[in-house]
Amino acid sequence: MSLNVLIGEDNADYAACLVDLLRKAGHAAEVFPDGLAAFHAFKENRFDVAILDIALPKLSGLEILQKITGTPHALPVLVLTAHGDPEVHDRALSTGASVFLQKSADPADILRHVAALGRRRHV
Questions:
Q1: Which domains does the chain carry?
Q2: Which end of the chain has the lower number of beta carbons within 10 A, N or C?
Q3: How far is it, in rounded angstroms, from Cα 105 to Cα 96?
């Protein structure tokens, strides 16, 4: 199943790697380099899954989760971040993230989670 993935990531090199990974797996991906742009994209476009960094400028990944959870704009979110702090992990999951991974995660794991979240979205 081909998915349309929203990526909220301010590191251009890492975002390009994610886009390349997702496109090679047959998915479409669009990058938003700050949290405010990503939040507006949740409202304006139709995405199947989102990948968010926690430390986005203008609006953090956690703030985006707080704003979309329980709304018509909510969708499965994979938090992919350099923050390994267990407290950040717990806050992300309790705020509405579906999955929390380190940016150093194996690309195959990222793809596996994206596919699983997409299937859950379309059930």
A1: 4-121 (3.40.50.2300)
A2: C
A3: 20
